[in-house]
Amino acid sequence: MGKTQLPILTSLPAALAAFACTLTYLTYAWRFNRYSCKTFSFLWEENGLSEELAGNVETTMIGLLLISAICIWIPKIRWIALFGAFVMLSEMYSETFMTSAKYPFLYWTEWALRYSTPLIAILFFQTSEKGKLWSACIMRLAIAAVFTGHGIKALYADPRFIDYLLVTFRRIGMETQEPFAVTLLLIIGTVDILLAALILFRKPKRNHGVLIWIATWGAITALARVTYGGTGNWHEVLIRSSHFLVPIALLLTYRAVAQSDSKRTA
Amino acid sequence: MATAIAINAADFAQNVRVVWSQKPQTEAMVVWDGDEILDGSVLLYDTVPRVSGHRDYAFRASVTGMGLYQEGPAKKPKDAEDDWAPPAPSTGFFYHHAPIKNLTPDTVYYLAVQTADGIGREYHFKSAPKDGQTFKLIYGGDSRTHVDVARQINEQISQMVESDPSIAGLLHGGDYAVTTRRDLWKQWLEAYNLTTTEDGKLLPIIPVIGNHDVPGNSPIFRQAYGYPGGLKDYYSCRLTPSIAIICLNTEISAEGDQRIFLQKALTQLKTDQVKWQIAAFHKPVYPGVKKPSAGRVSWVPLFEEYNIDLVLESDGHCIKRTVPIRGDIEADDGIVYLGEGGYGAPQRNPKLDRWYLQGDNAFAGKGDHVMILEFAPDIIHYSAMLNTGEIIDSASFKARR
Question: Which tens digit of pLDDT belongs to each residue from A222-241?
Fold first, then answer.
């Protein structure tokens, strides 16, 4: 953003971030109820909390997610949506410290958009330019973190990523083998990390194309959960809605800034 | 006699166990542990006991692999102080693998480990049954976390093995210890040692890998069981010519090389007209609690296409028997998914609202347990037994072929 003065933007980017927040948290609430959550396992299995008490914590978390999904739209109590972010942080903490954790600490980057979206929306809804600047800054960091996390996982040739690729190819009639998927993941992982670097270090006004790419790729990878597991996997797409809605929000922000700059120059 | 032999100076070989993988009728992997490398140790075996006298065993098997169990990451104990720090690597604990081949089915083999100090305690085990013979297989998964429960169940199993000679072996559904840390695996292997009867009868184990057995790319599962599935940890176990158990690995890609392996294995079973075809793996595809694992997409269509008989699963920490399932609905000719692991892991309430756990043809509950599968020529009798000895669920599955 540099020294550019941010105009009072239209509320579309904020609405997109809030929409992502609502979709993500409503879907997580459904998932926790259906499949249980990591925090439950962490408290009950790993820390010896009673099943009942861990269940109560889980129910509370579901409640907080539902409240967050709604409150993000109500101006005076929008801050309550931060409880949803707290729930996500609790999930990540649990995932990181579970004894069976495969990629401890990588989750914090992978999930960056899921826990930062309420903050992004709250700051963006503020009328001050400073708030919007902060919001754009957080969006930028979170998008870079998500792409770095997923990029590293792809470089590790994560088994689930291999499955997504191979099953999707099989469903469209292309029989491919595991080594091909591993090679493809190597390329995808490298590109993901490159995109993260661009979004982080390149001047925002030169990143419009990159953001379109990121939003498209975010949508494709979210939808890959459905091409992989069928429509029953709809929830896997929605919990990743921030992966394509937030880049669009950031793109709209940059565009508005660019338009504002060009008007000023003219 | 057993006690006298157990204190023999040559008894440095600990946790002697028999592992079954591809061909249990004719092959076995004998594994033992030691506080140090037992250099020059060999396995002696015979079809007659050599417990006294010159102990002239007819056969000997060399050690093909030995080494230090790789250390895994430490976990902070629940009651640890705030300033807790991970301990130094636990004490030396070494594995030794001795494969034996050309066995005769349904034959008792007597074995002992010979070290530089002499010949140790004599154990015995029976190779896998002859075709058509009725026998029982115990199925348990998730022995992690409460090793005291695993110990108690193993003592119970030892009594069963003593009183019921038809028990042929134990299939473990994975998650042997909480982490891949050496001392926790030592605890588990010592606990499994309790299945050995007083007179030295070993209960062969068919091991499946679980998610707690792999963090940090740990090789400890392979080291403990003699690489039953090579470096991929999946294999097809032809228990008898009529019974096959395909042991799969839910911790790697389900769709890639493993699906090709599964398809080839199932095609082979079809060609060989194998009567009972079973799949076993850790993370469930029709779970009692959690999300379905990747096998739901990659393996279930093959299970249904090749019409396998039964699927054994773990990981959920409850007791589960689904309705027969085909095409994601209840069907008379469907496949039943059994298990979910109660061999020591804490038990939780299954989600009873899942369609495949409802009705007279299904069961869901919780409790420390193992399952018993009795293979008769045309029927499998199944029962789930709690650690109190109570049978909490039972059913029968008729042969499809």
Answer: 999 999 999 999 999 999 99
